[in-house]
Structure formats: C-alpha cells, structure tokens
Write a structure and sequence with these properties.
With 398 residues, the chain is α/β, with parallel strands linked by helices. It has 3 domains: 10-74, Roll (Archaeosine Trna-guanine Transglycosylase, Chain: A, domain 4); 82-187, Transcription Regulator spoIIAA (2-Layer Sandwich); 209-396, Vaccinia Virus protein VP39 (Rossmann fold, 3-Layer(aba) Sandwich), CATH 3.40.50. The protein has 11 helices and 20 strands. It has helices spanning 20-24, 82-95, 136-140, 142-153, 165-170, 213-219, 237-244, 257-270, 284-290, 312-328, 347-361, and strands spanning 10-14, 28-30, 34-37, 46-50, 56-62, 68-74, 107-111, 120-125, 128-133, 158-162, 175-180, 187-191, 194-198, 227-231, 249-254, 277-281, 295-300, 330-340, 365-371, 390-396. The strands form 4 sheets. A 7-stranded mixed sheet has the order 16-15-14-17-18-20-19, with helices on both faces. It is globular, with a radius of gyration of 23 Å. The relative contact order is 0.10. The model has no long low-confidence stretch (mean pLDDT 95).
C-alpha cells in the first residue's frame, strides 16, 4: 500500500456544510463536496479528510478519476494501517461463522462498504474464495488482502473476478484469473441442505448469488402442493427450494439457454428422476403474456434493469410491466415473490411500482413480507446505497 507520508499527507478539504455525512459514517465523498486538495495525488493514495476549518474528519483513499473521489476508511486522526485492514477482514470472516454450518458451506465473507472495506468483495465458494477488487484503494492493498485471506481461511484456491464495470469507472482495467491454487471448473456448494454446482470462471459476478439465500428458504413456506413459476431462474435456486418443499409442479424460465441448462443440472443433482419440472428458454415478459398456464406462486427475480440514475424511468416501466404480467397469471390466493437488484431504484420507488402494477391488474393484494439480502450482506446504516436488493412477498386475495 502507498505510504501515507505522515510528514506531508495528501489532504482533501471539504466544502463548508458537506462534512455531516462523513461524520455520520457515510464512506462516499463525491467530487462536488470537495473544496480543494493540497497536492496532486495518485489513484488509491491514502488521504486525510478535513472539514473547512482544518478539523480532521478521518482517513480514506483518493481517486480523482472517480466521481466518488474519496472512500473513507477511518474516522480517526491517525492514518489507516495494514493492521487495521487485516483486523477488519478477520472480523468480517469471524461474523460469518453464524451462517456457515453443515447445511450451508458457502456465503459472502466480505461485503465492501457493509464491512467497512469499500471496494472489496470476498465470497466463500466451497473450499475456495472468489474476490472482487473494485477500486484503486483496494488495488493498492492487494497483496495484504491476499495474505490475510490465506491466513484466515486457508482456501484451496483464490480466484479473482474483478471483471466489473466498477473498475472501469475507477480507471482500472478488468482482471480475472487464479491468484492462489487452481479453481475447479465446477465447484459443489451446499446451501440450506441443497447441493449446487458453481462455475466461478463464467458465472455472473462471483459465480453465484448468495444474497437470496434466506429468501429462497422462505419460499418453502408457501409452495407445498402448489404450481410454481421461477422467472429469471438463473441457476434454479428458487425452483430447487420449491421442489424441496414439495411443490406440485415448477416451471423454470430464463432467456439464457446456458442458465436453463445450469438450473436443469442443479435440479437433477438434488431430485434425480423427478418429473415435476418444465424448463423453458424464453423471454420472461413474452412467456408470461402468452402462456395459458396460471400459477399459485411466481418468483420474479430479474437482472438489474437500471445501472445508473439515468435509466430509472425505463427500469420503472420494466418492473411495472413484469409485475403486472405476474399478477395476471396468479390464481386466487397466489403468492408473488418479486425483487429488484437495481441500486438506483430505491425501496420506496420499487414498492410504488409494484403497488401500481397491482392496482392496474385489478386484483386485491396483501403485502406479507418486505425482503432484502441476507446477513452475510450487511449494510452500513450510514450508507443506504449498499441496500441494493429489495423484495416483496404479496398475496392475491381476489
């Protein structure tokens, strides 16, 4: 990591009145909040953050190329150290021990800002680790991060999936590949007593969406003896849990043929010879509009519709359309699990969109649950931008 150079530290001074979010613990400082910088700094350099009167607010790392110019690491006067980095990684891993047991051997270990390590994501996938290093600040800590992960976890492999748009915004090139050991092409993991195959080299993000673990488990309470449709199924996680809970039949729908094959493989390994599932490779919007089938439960977990604020209006139309289609295909008493993973669409707006779709469907609807990511995806309460996954469970009464 770049030396903090305590005799001549890089100092970022905020505009008057812009210090409150930092004092409250929000780690993001945008370029518009900055009054001046005392000298030229390199991307990822440690910096001291001051309010206008010279009072030190803490330390972070700096990147002029990013709209998030500073990401805070500490609210202390002293510079952030490698020892503090190691301690935070170790603590984050220790907290996950409440999640990992004989039924679940994989989860997120480090969740970026939620674990006070902005720009670093680490997932435990079976006996190995998959990491994303998304910012210049964490890039400069790379060797220290790998060293601490090896010490804490003794993984069989560490594989990097820093092939993210976030790195491009930081001025970093995308990077992917093994860092330690060799990752098997297919890795078996266990989640809530079910077995899944994960491909960390070609799967989305780190290969598997651990954030839905608890929501997939909750689904089991609603589907015994029911007709279920898992829309945007990806790896078939919701469908597999529906079968575990004795659903009468399950349709698995995704536009990606490789996703459908992956779901088929995961379902087969848990329910070999089971004939309750139909696999459909199709556009989900068109499928729901055109299928003559109706369902007792529909899961709607689409990919991100809005990558940034400028796409929110278009995304809102998409969310309303897909939820309207789902409400129309639910039987009386039917249950809808619906989600958004678009960070730019906040929970209030998502609820408004879904409720508008319910009203347009002419159905009478009850709200049963408000959902989010599991406890391995903690959120810093001063940084609600980290609360990206939003979910609702609704019942069609009439």
């Amino acid at each position: 990591m770049t030396n903090s150079n305590s005799s001549n530290p890089l100092v970022v001074v905020l505009k008057k009145g812009r210090e409150k979010p930092v004092r409250m613990g929000n780690p993001w400082i945008f370029s518009g909040a900055i009054a001046n910088v005392n000298r030229k700094g390199r991307p990822g350099d440690l910096c001291q953050v001051q309010q206008g009167d010279g009072v030190v607010l803490g330390w972070g790392y700096y990147n002029k190329k990013s709209s998030i110019t500073v990401r805070m690491l500490s609210l202390l006067d002293a510079p952030f150290t490698t020892e503090e980095l190691h301690g935070r990684i170790a603590k984050a891993i220790e907290r996950r021990q409440l999640i990992l047991d004989r039924h679940t051997d994989s989860c997120r270990l480090v969740n970026s800002e939620g674990d006070f390590l902005p720009g670093l994501i680490v997932d435990k996938v079976g006996n190995g680790l998959v990491i994303q290093v998304l910012t210049w600040g964490m890039e400069r800590f790379r060797n220290e991060i790998i060293s601490e992960l090896l010490a804490c976890c003794a993984p069989l492999f560490i594989y990097e999936r820093s092939d993210s748009e976030a790195r491009q915004k930081e001025g970093l090139t995308e990077t992917e590949g093994p860092l330690e050991g060799e990752a098997p092409r297919q890795i078996e993991i266990f989640e809530n007593g079910l077995s899944y195959v994960v491909d960390v080299t070609t799967g989305q993000k780190t290969g598997y969406f651990f954030d839905q673990r608890q929501n997939r488990l909750l689904l089991r309470n609603y589907v015994a003896g029911k007709a279920v449709c898992d829309c945007f199924s990806y790896s078939g996680g919701f469908a597999t849990n529906a079968l575990k809970a004795d659903a009468a039949r399950v349709d698995v729908v995704d536009i990606s043929s490789s996703a459908v094959e992956w779901a088929k493989q995961n379902i087969s390994r848990n329910f070999e010879g089971d004939h309750r599932t139909e696999f459909v490779c199709a556009d989900v919007f068109r499928f729901l509009r055109e299928t003559p089938k109706t369902y007792d439960c529909i899961i709607c977990d689409p990919p991100k519709f809005a990558k940034h604020q400028g796409e929110v209006k278009r995304a809102a139309r998409g969310y309303k359309d897909i939820n309207l289609c789902a409400f129309k295909k639910l039987n009386k008493g039917g249950i809808l699990f619906t989600f958004s993973c678009s960070r730019a669409v906040d929970s209030k707006l998502f609820r408004q969109i879904v409720f508008a779709a319910a009203a347009d469907s002419g159905r009478q609807i009850q709200l049963l649950h408000t959902l989010g990511a599991g406890p391995d995806h903690p959120v810093n309460i001063a940084h609600m931008e980290g609360e990206y996954l939003k979910g609702l469970v609704l019942r069609v009464v009439a």
